[in-house]
Write a structure and sequence with these properties.
The protein is built from 20 helices and 8 strands. With 494 residues, the protein is mainly α. The longest helix is centred in the first third of the chain and has 24 residues. This is Putative outer membrane starch-binding protein.
Length: 494
């Protein structure tokens, strides 16, 4: 399924569908973002402009250069998924020829605030926040109660703002401490530079935004999976509560995850789909993703270019990304997920050639990327439900959701019968391990490492720092507030 949606970050192209843009509009809105006044005026004339601006936020999730670096690792959310998977150690840069990600695998980028690797996620997520604030301001501000289609636009803007702040908390905070000052909060367009707010206030905003979005997205039937619907918003809120990792927040995370599962909107990824390439947003288990077409023009500067040996780019040409050898060794030989990785030696050793691939399966074959981007799938919620249930002593629920997933990864129930005998920390550890295995390469391992306060010892197949043990709150695993922000915001002292 390939659905084209409007390219309307610049707004003018969208308006041209109904009437031509005036020269004045082009002069007053030359940037990627339409200005606050433009949104308000255009929205009053044509409410769809607001939907266009929302679509623009979703486009930033996969467009190149949205982090302001312009490098071949700057391509939106999936770029940061690679960064975080490498930082936590589950993804090994096993061969480095061109140098992309070398600074991350060697723990150099995150300890140098002048390194642009710190600037990219900061700029990207705050750009999402600014665009969300444009829509929210245009509809009356944070306390507004718009109706009709504009209620859905408002809700998506709130959810996207929360998504951005959530990832900022994960990347720029070593661990959850409610009293630690961390991030500047911006909830309106045009606010002056803000000081760092306490972690508790940032999380309060995320929870408030997502809670409101969940209520307002009731009844929203999205036209494609690039948009956030009610279940995606609930899942983001579940991740937020799980990151706080208190008994009360884990219970709320468990309940939300179960709500999403029991909605019946998404089936589990099947055994066949587990080695089916993870390349099509039409896959039933995919909750949130980008439907890519030739129109977007993605090529070697893309997640597929960095990860897939069957795409013309770095993965096949000399920058190999493999599963950590220690993690691979923990996968049962009868687990279908073992077969996602090349078992041989040499360059292709432990590369995900049977997990992520272009259907043509020709080495370096895909030149223009049309294989889709995955942001979230229902399997995550089964694992999150199991993990948070185990943390609050609800072993029965944890067993239920772990077993439901593992039934689709093994042919013989005897291979995972041991789960029934696990409880307490052993059950939590099992849920965490299954999360690392199931979601390898999907940008979720780093989040799981932090909320489980884990220490990971790298395997022998890392290009640099092999065999090193690093704890979740090690300074090397957290991005530094970038030099540009420190220079331009007088309220921040790094």
């Amino acid at each position: 399924m390939k659905i084209n949606f409007l390219k309307s970050i610049a707004a003018c192209a969208f308006i041209a569908l109904s009437y031509s843009c005036s020269e004045d509009f082009l002069e007053t809105s030359p940037s990627q973002f339409i200005k606050s006044d433009d949104v308000a005026v255009s929205g009053a004339l044509k409410p769809e402009v607001l939907a266009g601006t929302v679509n623009g936020m979703y486009e930033m999730m996969f467009l190149t250069g949205t982090g302001g670096d312009g490098g071949h690792d700057d391509f939106g959310q999936k770029g940061y998924d690679i960064f975080s998977d490498m930082l936590c150690g589950d993804m090994a840069l096993s061969v480095s020829t061109y140098g992309w990600y070398a600074g991350f695998t060697d723990y150099q980028s995150t300890v140098d605030y002048t390194n642009t690797d710190n600037y990219m996620p900061w700029r990207y997520y705050y750009r999402i926040i600014r665009s969300a604030n444009l829509v929210i301001d245009a509809l009356g501000g944070n306390e507004a109660q718009p109706t009709g289609d504009n209620a859905y636009n408002f809700a998506q803007a709130k959810a996207m703002r929360a998504y951005a702040y959530f990832y900022l908390t994960q990347f720029f905070i070593e661990e959850y401490n409610p009293n630690t000052a961390v991030l500047p909060i911006y909830t309106e367009v045009g606010q002056p530079a803000q000081p760092q707010s306490p972690t508790s206030e940032v999380f309060d905003l995320i929870i408030e935004d997502l809670s409101q979005a969940i209520t307002m997205l009731d009844g929203f039937n999205r036209s494609n999976k690039s948009k956030i619907n009610q279940n995606v918003a609930k899942s983001l809120l579940a991740y937020t509560y799980a990151a706080m990792d208190t008994p009360a927040s884990n219970q709320m995370a468990r309940d939300l995850a179960i709500e999403v599962i029991q909605s019946g909107e998404f089936p589990l990824t099947t055994k066949e789909e587990t080695t089916g390439g993870f390349n099509d947003v039409a896959t039933g288990s995919w909750m949130w993703g980008a439907d890519l077409t030739t129109e977007q023009g993605l090529d070697l500067i893309s997640w597929w270019g960095q990860m897939d040996v069957f795409t013309y780019s770095y993965a096949w040409a000399g920058d190999a990304k493999a599963i950590d050898s220690n993690l691979y060794a923990q996968i049962n030989a009868n687990d279908v997920r073992k077969g996602q990785f090349h078992p041989g030696s040499g360059y292709y050793n432990l590369l995900p050639i049977n997990k992520f691939y272009h259907p043509g399966r020709e080495i370096g074959g895909q030149r223009v990327v049309v294989t889709d981007y995955l942001y979230m799938r229902i399997d995550e919620l089964y694992l999150l439900a199991a993990e948070t249930a185990a943390k609050i002593g609800d072993d029965t629920t944890a067993h239920t959701y772990l077993n439901a997933l593992l039934a689709e990864r093994f042919d013989d129930p005897a291979d995972y019968a041991y789960v029934a005998g696990l409880s307490g920390q052993a059950l939590v550890d099992e849920a965490y391990l299954q999360t690392r295995i199931e979601l390898w390469g999907e940008g979720k391992s780093y989040l799981a490492m932090k909320r489980n306060q884990a220490t990971i010892t790298r395997g022998t197949n890392h290009y640099a720092q092999s065999g090193v043990s690093v704890a979740y709150n090690d300074d090397r695993l957290t991005w530094d507030i970038p030099q540009a922000e420190i220079q331009n915001n007088p309220n921040i002292n790094n």
